[in-house]
Amino acid sequence: MSTADTIPVHPAWLPDAAFAPLGSRRVRVALGPDAADPVAATVLDEVRRATAAHGGALVTDDGPSDVVLRWEPDAPAAGFTTTRTGGVTSVVARDAVGLLHGLHALVRAGEAAFGADHPTVVDTPVAPVRMLDHWDNIDVHPVMGQVERGYAGGSIFYADGRVRDDLSRVAAYARLLGSIGINAVAINNVNVHRTEARLLTDGLSDVARVADLFRPHGVRTYLSVSFASPVVLGGLPTSDPADPDVQAWWAAAADRVYATIPDFGGFVVKADSEGQPGPFAYGRDHADGANLLARAVAPHGGTVFWRAFVYNHEQDWRDRRTDRARAAYDHFAPLDGRFDDNVVLQVKYGPMDFQTREPVSPVLAAMPRTRLAVELQVTQEYTGQQQHVCYLGPLWSQVLTFPLADGATRDVASIVAGVPGPGADAPPSGSTPTGGITAVSNVGDDEFWTGHPLAQANLYAYGRLAWDPQADPVALLDEWIGLTFPGADRRVRDTLHTLMDGSWLTYEAYTAPLGVGFMVDPGRQHYGPNVDGYEYSKWGTYHFADRDGVGVDRTVATGTGYTGQYPSPWRETYEDLATCPDELLLFFHHVPYGHVLHSGRTVIQHVYDSRADAVDVVTAWVDAWSALRGLVDDRLHARVAERLAEQVRSATEWRDQVRTYFFRKSGVPDTTGRPIH
Ligand code: BDP
């Protein structure tokens, strides 16, 4: 046995001790007709395990109990209710999945679930589909490695060029996901290489093994597929959506999938983007492409998650009229109303690419007759690559609660919930989901799951916000701390809040300023600073800094016209320098260095100050964390300490490069006199 085999995998937010309040009680489970469901077995297993560890009992007859988990036909369609009367806490749900989610709600609440009596509280998930996408490759890619943008070791699904024989990590992962209400997982990279493409055909029995492990936790399995599959896998001369042979090929492929995995979720598709094949090659649009696949899975109740991340990655940086931010709207808004009911258009939260700060994508407001899902990035590609502490709950909360238009009740959460937009038909009845939320997972085969142990909080917060987008992200962080470090000294909780609550804003403060984005190093896979790294390349991610000023003019009046893609009030708010929020200023406007922000500081002084102050903040975290030695698990302590040292080094590098860059461009000194080189 190698040392790696002897290191226990960190239990994340499900350590046995977190089950003590529930497990020390008599828990009655009444499963009703769902008793044979694999999820029902999980509910029983969880209760057995908790009560065995903590001295309580599983009660399956009418005997006395302190807790009841009960099936009822008129409980809410999704989720569960909780009530406490006469000293008994009851969780009621319409199916086993609801009971599982209710059970974990009790675990999260701890002793508080067994306090004073309270009337029934209904807890239903807002997003019907709450998905994680894995950008895992089967073969190790020469540039991207095994997990594209993965920062936590290898894949939990694949090793040695195939699906792992030992999938015990997947089983443990499924349990973690089920406990926070995730109900969908796509298990391979959206960039589908030939080996992964074959999961759809030759690899189906392996996919079924994976699906068998997710199913007992209420999670359905999806595959990313290549639009070129009919050619690549089927040997057809074309993948043209209008070709009857192509349609028949997809229908037969879907039939085989569902014959093997009857509850298969569906497909995720990246088409005509960054080199992936798509309908454009045949003169068709993305509605044609998406509907082709949707019709193949529709008879089986499947869904196609079609990504709106479509842009020209061969731009001419000298041509200021082209703007990558415009691309998703330009491609997709005209297609509103043309997608089949079982297509969900998967839209990145911002118009560019998972930056630390972006405005909310205008596509979300522009397609009231299309089912939409918002896509987030839990893996920290642009937010410190799991070397840096960067708790993303506040970013996602801000996105999800963003009001889309004037006086409207529609916010991003209502899109995620599938509430029909103005002028849209009511959602068709049936089992197809009406909206959703997806995110790229940050998990790998690392002993702490996420490389940086504190990055577990991002996975946790994602699941919890997908369930309830209105939840306070700091309260969710507190919940995560309580579960992950049960019974820990008060100093642990306080220190974690000190490090994590504002860590997204701290990260933002030492990286690219005021919403301009990128400035990351292409040579280090987007890690660390390189201010001009993408400035003269084809990717469309520019800051346009020169001796006079910086920022991208995306106004209608003088720029790319991107602000015109927003409804009121946002188009006016962003168009006008006077009302554009500071944190997005350089996303929308090109301004002189002396431009005065709402904060009262000039742009250049803001750049200087924020970067210097942020490094001071991060430096202070090192001592704060060191003081916890002996109060948390030693291995975890050491891993976080090692990452914090790297965060200080990297933040310092960011500070120095960005300050120096702008000093050399502008010639404007830092009024505080701090040295610049
Ligand atoms: C970018 C990543 C790239 C992904 C792409 C996507 O750098 O690896 O393939 O997003 O979302 O952020 O498809």
Automatic annotation (TrEMBL):
<dbReference type="Pfam" id="PF07488">
    <property type="entry name" value="Glyco_hydro_67M"/>
</dbReference>
<feature type="domain" description="Glycosyl hydrolase family 67 catalytic">
    <location>
        <begin position="120"/>
        <end position="449"/>
    </location>
</feature>
<dbReference type="GO" id="GO:0045493">
    <property type="term" value="P:xylan catabolic process"/>
</dbReference>
<dbReference type="Pfam" id="PF07477">
    <property type="entry name" value="Glyco_hydro_67C"/>
</dbReference>
<dbReference type="InterPro" id="IPR011099">
    <property type="entry name" value="Glyco_hydro_67_C"/>
</dbReference>
<keyword id="KW-0326">Glycosidase</keyword>
<dbReference type="GO" id="GO:0046559">
    <property type="term" value="F:alpha-glucuronidase activity"/>
</dbReference>
<comment type="similarity">
    <text>Belongs to the glycosyl hydrolase 67 family.</text>
</comment>
<keyword id="KW-0378">Hydrolase</keyword>
<feature type="active site" description="Proton acceptor">
    <location>
        <position position="353"/>
    </location>
</feature>
<feature type="active site" description="Proton donor">
    <location>
        <position position="274"/>
    </location>
</feature>
<dbReference type="InterPro" id="IPR011100">
    <property type="entry name" value="Glyco_hydro_67_cat"/>
</dbReference>
<dbReference type="InterPro" id="IPR017853">
    <property type="entry name" value="GH"/>
</dbReference>
<dbReference type="InterPro" id="IPR037054">
    <property type="entry name" value="A-glucoronidase_C_sf"/>
</dbReference>
<feature type="active site" description="Proton acceptor">
    <location>
        <position position="381"/>
    </location>
</feature>
<keyword id="KW-0119">Carbohydrate metabolism</keyword>
<keyword id="KW-0858">Xylan degradation</keyword>
<feature type="domain" description="Glycosyl hydrolase family 67 C-terminal">
    <location>
        <begin position="450"/>
        <end position="674"/>
    </location>
</feature>
<keyword id="KW-0624">Polysaccharide degradation</keyword>
<protein>
    <submittedName>
        <fullName>Alpha-glucuronidase</fullName>
        <ecNumber>3.2.1.139</ecNumber>
    </submittedName>
</protein>
<dbReference type="GO" id="GO:0005576">
    <property type="term" value="C:extracellular region"/>
</dbReference>
<dbReference type="InterPro" id="IPR011395">
    <property type="entry name" value="Glyco_hydro_67_aGlcAse"/>
</dbReference>
<dbReference type="GO" id="GO:0033939">
    <property type="term" value="F:xylan alpha-1,2-glucuronosidase activity"/>
</dbReference>
